[in-house]
Automatic annotation (TrEMBL):
<dbReference type="InterPro" id="IPR045004">
    <property type="entry name" value="ECH_dom"/>
</dbReference>
<dbReference type="InterPro" id="IPR029045">
    <property type="entry name" value="ClpP/crotonase-like_dom_sf"/>
</dbReference>
<dbReference type="GO" id="GO:0006574">
    <property type="term" value="P:L-valine catabolic process"/>
</dbReference>
<dbReference type="InterPro" id="IPR032259">
    <property type="entry name" value="HIBYL-CoA-H"/>
</dbReference>
<protein>
    <submittedName>
        <fullName>Enoyl-CoA hydratase/carnithine racemase</fullName>
    </submittedName>
</protein>
<dbReference type="Pfam" id="PF16113">
    <property type="entry name" value="ECH_2"/>
</dbReference>
<keyword id="KW-0378">Hydrolase</keyword>
<dbReference type="GO" id="GO:0003860">
    <property type="term" value="F:3-hydroxyisobutyryl-CoA hydrolase activity"/>
</dbReference>
<feature type="domain" description="Enoyl-CoA hydratase/isomerase">
    <location>
        <begin position="16"/>
        <end position="348"/>
    </location>
</feature>
Length: 364
């Protein structure tokens, strides 16, 4: 008999609910089952007076920490999207509802963002009361590389980064470390990786007056970290404030700096269509609350799989990156300059009337 191991471990120790993502071989990529388990756990603890706060961490093959969450399970998305499995609809609806719950959680939710923190991993950490990064943190929203967009609330939290960092992060999909995560308002403080276990144990053994005391206890231990991209902030703000993707790439290619040329080269590898969609997404989201943004993203992700039957950028991007691994996606349209405004705008037309939207019940 094969013993199955839960992909989400949870326990209440002392006055704190502790969650460990336990799918290390997949870098804790979120399955539908994990999304459902997380939602169930958080809803139960939300109304439990014995739980003052919640902490969440990932795990690697050696044990706790080391990897937080690499995103959603893209192999599942490719398989389900390829055959029209309705569970793909459930996955995004339930994942986005979980993201909203975390952002609006009534108790301090503390995320130990060690190792890889990408895509769906950002979705279950950006709403935290404390977002802790380490020297091992590798943070990104790399969705344009697979023909997707930075979802899980990405429009909301990227659009609230300082300057035009949100556009840069969302379009290029670059990986950043602890110092830049803090500088871009995507993390609250630094804790050395070898101090995490001590802090985790303390959360389960200390006595706290209330949830605020739990948060203060952890916050007092956090440090700052040196950003590596400070020299490029002005460039990011200059180029990524331009009015269109074509204008951004054209200006970058005309510049004489190595950074600009390298950035343009990366953009040329991404899905041209989704670059245009992402720029529109981030800019629309600046004037939206979280629930509005998540509803917009739910519309977008539906269109990513079904707007153009047989021509899904997302299925093609995942195929090239993770299934066939030929690293040669056949984007359609092929060039940034060939994407029509009408095609981009069609992604933002909701397939549902407001009262029947899958996320109609979300309130901010």
């Amino acid at each position: 008999m094969v013993e199955t191991v839960s992909e989400v471990l949870s326990e209440v120790r002392g006055q704190v609910g502790l969650i460990t993502l336990n799918r290390p071989r997949a870098l804790n990529a979120l399955s539908l089952g994990m999304v459902r388990d997380l939602m169930s756990i958080l809803l139960a603890w939300k109304d439990d007076p014995a739980v003052l706060a919640v902490a969440v961490r990932g795990s690697n093959k050696e044990g706790p920490f080391g990897a937080f969450c690499a995103g959603g399970d893209i192999r599942f998305l490719h398989q389900a999207g390829s055959v029209g499995d309705p569970q793909i609809e459930d996955f995004f609806t339930e994942e986005y509802a979980l993201n909203h719950l975390i952002h609006r959680y009534p108790k301090p939710y503390i995320a130990f963002m060690d190792g890889i923190v990408m895509g769906g991993g950002m979705g279950i950490s950006q709403g935290a009361a404390l977002r802790i990064v380490t020297e091992r943190t590798k943070m990104a929203m790399p969705e344009t590389a697979i023909g997707l967009f930075p979802d899980v609330g990405g429009g909301y939290f990227l659009s609230r980064c300082p300057g035009r960092a949100g556009e840069w992060l969302g379009l290029v999909g670059e990986t950043i470390g602890a110092g830049d995560a803090i500088a871009f308002n995507l993390a609250d403080g630094f804790l050395a990786a070898d101090q995490q276990a001590r802090m985790w144990e303390a959360l389960g053994s200390q006595t706290f007056a209330d949830g605020a005391a739990v948060r203060s206890f952890v916050a007092a231990e956090l440090k700052t970290a040196v950003p590596k991209l400070e020299a490029h902030h002005a460039d990011i703000n200059q180029y990524f404030a331009l009015g269109s993707v074509s204008a951004i790439v054209s200006a970058l290619e005309a510049a004489d700096s190595d950074w600009a040329k390298a950035t343009a080269a990366l953009l040329r590898k991404r899905s041209p269509l989704m670059l245009h969609v992402v720029l529109e997404q981030v800019r629309r989201a600046r004037s939206m609350d979280l629930a509005q943004d998540l509803r917009m993203e739910r519309d977008l992700v539906r269109h990513c799989f079904y707007l153009r039957p047989g021509q899904s950028e997302t299925l093609e991007g995942i195929r090239a990156l993770a299934v066939d691994k030929d690293q040669s996606p056949r984007w359609n349209p092929e060039r940034i300059e060939d994407v029509s405004p009408e095609l981009v705008q069609s992604f933002f037309a909701s397939p549902w009337p407001a009262h029947a939207h899958p996320l109609a019940s979300l309130q901010d």
